[in-house]
Amino acid sequence: MAKHLEVPVTLLTPGTINENLHYGPFARYWWSSRSTNGSNEHIFFPIRLGQKTRVFRNNREFLVSVVLGNSEHPRQPGYFCSSGSFSGKIETSPTRAISSLYNEIFHNSTKFSGPTIIGQDDPKIIEEISRGVRFIPFQITIDKYKIFIHDLGVSSHPEWHNAGSGYSSSLLHFYNKKQALFVSRIVDNECIIEIYQQAQKIKIIRGSTPSEVWRKSWFMEKYDGSELYGLKDQKTQNSLRVHHVPTCTPSNWGNLSLMSKLFEYHLKRRTISKINWYTIFDIWGKQDSDIFELYSNLKKIYPKRHKFGDRELRAWRALLKAAGAHLITPFNSDESKVSFLYLIYKRENSICILTLL
Question: Is the confidence at residue 194, as pLDDT, over 70?
Fold first, then answer.
C-alpha cells in the first residue's frame, strides 16, 4: 500500500498548459480530480507539462517532474524523479517514480503516494496549477462508461443539443477486442468520431449529427449518439448555457480591444507567441479585391520555415468565422492541404470570398 505523507510538498515549477495535450484527443489523461467535501462530485485540475515538486524523505530531497510520454504511451504524462546524483526512469505514475528511486537508494520496498508527492492533496498547489486555465473539463457517467468532456463549443443547432464547433468528449471502449479511445468532436458543420489505439488514429467516422455519426460507427448501439457525446446530461447542458464564445462583425474590425478577445479565445494558444495576427485583418480590410486568399497571406506574417498544422489552421478559420465570416465549404484536415476553404462575409453590400489553399 502506498504511504500517505504528512510532509510539506513544495511546488517548484507550475508547468504549462498545452492545448494539444490538455484539450486534444488524449486530454482525459492530463487532468486529475478530487472529491468536493467528501461528496461524489469531483473537480478536475490539470497535470501540467513541466510541473515540478519537491519533498524531503529520510533527509534527502526528492524532485518529481511531469514530462511528455512514458513507456506505455507517447502522449500521456510521464513522471521523472531525481535525488542528488540519483535519477530514476520515466514512469507511468508519480507513485512508481518516487517509490522506485527511493527503493534504489535505501534498498527497501517502501511505497509512497504519488498524488501526494506532486501536490494533489494540497489545496494551495491545486489552486496554483489551476490558475489561468481557460476551461476545466468534467466527467459524466452513462452506465459503465465515463464520458470526459474536455472542450466546449456552442451553436443553436437543435440536433446538436446547443453544442457547436469545438465541442469534444471521449470515452473508452473496445475496438477489434482491444481497448481504444473514442473521441467525439464537432468540427465546423460536421460531427466526427476518431478512434485511437495507443497514440495511433486508426479510424475516422463522419456524420451530420451526433446520433448519425455514432449510428454509422455500429458501436454501442443501445445508446443514442447524443448520449455518447455527453450532450444529454444536465451538467453538459448547464455548461453550454454559460459558455460564451466572443464574436463580432466586419464593422468591428477596427475595435482592437474586441478583436484581441477573439484572438485570445480562438488563436493565441494554438499558434506561435510572437505573431502580428491582426495584419491579416488589416490586409483584408484595405485590399480592393473582394477575393482574399488566406494561406499565402499567412505565410507573409509567419517565419519562412514555419509549418502550419491542422489545429493551427482550424484556429485561424475559427477566428475568421467569429469575426464575421461564414463557412460554406468545410476543409477536411485529413485530406491534402491543396484544397479550398470558402468563407464568405458581406462588406458594403458586396460579397467577399476567402480561400485557403
Answer: yes
